Each structure stands twice: as C-alpha cells, then as structure tokens.
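User: I'm putting together notes for a lab meeting next week and I want to include a structural view of one of the chains we've been expressing. I don't have a solved structure, so I'd like a prediction I can at least talk through. The sequence is below, exactly as it appears in our construct file.
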Amino acid sequence: MQRKLTELAGSYEPERFEGDWARDWAESDVNHADPARPGDGYSLVIPPPNVTGVLHMGHALNNTLQDVLVRYHRMRGDNVLWVPGTDHAGIATQNVVERRLATEGLTKEGLGREAFLEKIWQWKEESGGTIIRQLKRLGASCDWSRERFTMDEGLSNAVRKVFVDLYRDGLIYRGTRLINWCPRCLTALSDIEVEHAESQGRLYHLRYPFADDPGSALIVATTRPETMLGDVAVAVHPDDERYRSLIGRHVVLPLTGRAIPIIGDTYVDANFGSGVVKITPAHDFNDYEVGARHNLEPINIFTENGLVTLADGRAVTDADTRAAFDGLDRFEAREKLVAALESRDLLEKVEEHLHAVGHCYRCKTVVEPFLSPQWFVKVGPPENADSLAGRAIRAVADGDTRIIPDQWKNSYYAWMENIKDWCVSRQLWWGHRIPAYSCDDCGRQAGSEDPATGDPERKLVSEKPLEACPYCGGAVTPDPD
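Assistant: Thanks for the context. Below is the predicted structure for the 481-residue chain, given as structure tokens.
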C-alpha cells in the first residue's frame, strides 16, 4: 500500500492556524465563566483599549501577559473570569473624529451636538469592532459573552451612582480653581493628562519701576512675559538681604498703568533668575498658591482659546495697550509685548533657558493654567489618615496592597503625598454627562451653597434625570460638562 506524503512548510506559518483556533475557542465557549463551577475564583478585567484606532505592539504584549496569567490559573483548577471591553476615551476619541471631519471641511460646531455624537458612535462601531477582532485573533482567552463598553447603559448608570454617592459623602465638590486647560480641545485636563517635555525657551529679565522712584526699577525674571498683564504682585524671599527692605513698597506694572505690591514669600528661589518673581495667580499654579496666602485677587487675561482678553479694564487701564494686545494669540502677544518693553527700555536682557513645558496628552498643544469652575474629587490632605490619599498611603504601608518591585514604593508615596484634588469634569460632547442641574427659575445650581443654610444644593445632583427643580418646580438645565 502506497502512503500519501504531506509536505511540511519550511517554517511555522501561524496565519494558517490561528484564525481557526481562535474561532473554535470562541464557538466552543471554553472560556465562559460560570460562578457555579468549582475552584477558587480568579477574576481579571482587561485594561480597556481606547476606541481611537487599532491595537499596537504594546497592547499585544500587555494582553499576552494577562492571557498567560488566566491560562495558568485555569490549569490550576481555579474558576477564572477574564472580562473584555473597550473604553470610550472621551478626549482622544473626540479628537480623532474631529480630525476626520476636518478632512471633509466639517466641524463639530457646524454639525451640532447630536449629529456629532452620531459620527462618534459610527467611529466606535468601526474601531471598537476591529479591536475586539484583533484580541480574538491574538488568542486572548476572554469570556466574550461578557464584553463591555464604558458607555454601555449599565456602566453609565454605575458612573452616575458613584458620582452622586461621592458627592453626598462630601468627596466631590464644584469650585473655581486653577486647572490645566487645553486651548485647542477646549477642555480641562487632570494632572496626569499633561505631558511635560523639555523645551528650549527664554528667560526674560524685565524692569518694573518703583512707584515712588520711577528712575529705579526691580528686575523680574520670567519665561512667560505675556502673562505680565495679569500680574498682581512681585515676590521676593523674606530672608533675601538684597530685597528684604523692599517688602511693602510698590512697583508700576509696565504698559498697564497699575501699581502692584512687593511681597515676601518663601516660595521664591533666591538663586533663580534675579531672585524676584512676578505673581500671576490666574495663570500659574505656584502663583495661585502664593496669591491665596496673601489674599491677592487673580486677574484672568486669556480666553478659553488662548487669546488675550483685556476688555473689562481690570488688567490694563491704559487704552492704547488694551487696543494693541486685546484679541492676540498668547504667543503672538509674547513677541509683541517683549518688543514694546524693549522700545521703552524696560527689557534688561534675554537668556536662553531650557525648561519643562506642559502639553495636552492628545493634541500636543501647550497647556494653559486657567481659572475655571470645575468638579473635583477631594483626595487630600494626604497627612489626614482618613482622606482618600491618606487611606491609599496606609494601604501600601500596612501591606494590604503590594507594589512590585518593592523599590517603587517610594515613588508611589512621593506621588500620593503631593497629590492635588482631582479635576474630573471635561468640556466635551462625548462621554458621561455630569449628573447635575441648575434651575432656570430660582437660579439654584448644583454644587453651590444654599444662601439660607450654607449647605450644598444636594437635590440638584441626581442619578435619575430631573424634569423640574426640586426646590421651586421650575425648569432645569443639565450641567454641560
């Protein structure tokens, strides 16, 4: 009897087999988790990939490592659940769809909110479907019957419930604070959504004449001269012998017609620049803290788009200066302002200066510190053992949570000990809407205080959609964030 010979390929060709195996595993339901099965429970939720494109090599590595874990525990006889899903990725996905619209000469504003959201849902179906197909082709042994999307109805309900619970526990509040703002995406960003990169800039040494002695001047060093228009003080270190006697005097803020005080604050690094720092609380995080300590009122000089705004006259009393700078882009204003100072002999010198500049993690636009009403999660103070940060620190210190390798514990502690309240509101059209309202009739607003009792307007934050004001019965408007 003659045997039929099969020619073997010279090398393994995974594409000939992987698709069939992946399909067989999915159809046979071998990875379906049943709570009634024996064995210790082992559950893992996939870090959901953003529906902004397709998987890359980092995703492949990450999911392969998870697959190794869940297969190992199945072989041990554990009852394993690996939950798959995708993330709506508010800022990133909105950016992707806006860029696609731009190639067609369209904008989200031109389309309107509802039509724009339809475009994003179309993109989600296209991109999210590709991601799931890629995961299956990789052989990821997820329970595909439990696939989730972060804007599914169930998860959206969970987001609203957690927001309301945290708000009623006093852990979420609304307040006007200095936040990271992207002038292109037109939204607030949390600290971890800002990428800092070394950038070759300049250190400008400016002359601020004394109000009582215009022939003399204090030299102020800054990397952002355009924000000078919003200065409310200049600061020196109270122990700096060069300047200690000047505290309490005033200088004239060039081009503006305003006199501002010289204050002493230990924030100032006497060895940097001239040892004199301009204080612009509305456009710098450190200055904001200094301003709060000295009861200085911030003056905002930028619009949401990063344009100079001087119309109200608070920043600049001189009409010619207002006319010259109002409406300029912030970087255009920098060049024009430096030229104006130089022409008046108020520019002492300019030095090259390498420094870290924050950029939006999605569109790479330079981020602007911006004074804005937002919603925050109260995480500190970290030294309070009962605060969110304090409890997170204690969990690691007591060994309830392990960080591997152990050497990263110090980095974790450093991060938690310096953490700020977390800005959670975004000015986007795509995402979970803040479950809060304002009343069109009585003017009450969620997050504000009741004028009679001083208590927050708690009834205007609700898991269920509000049809009318719970206080007066008037019409209500949902929070746009």
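A couple of points you could mention at the meeting. The first strand starts at residue 41 and ends at 45. The chain has a mean pLDDT of 91.

User: Perfect, that's what I needed.
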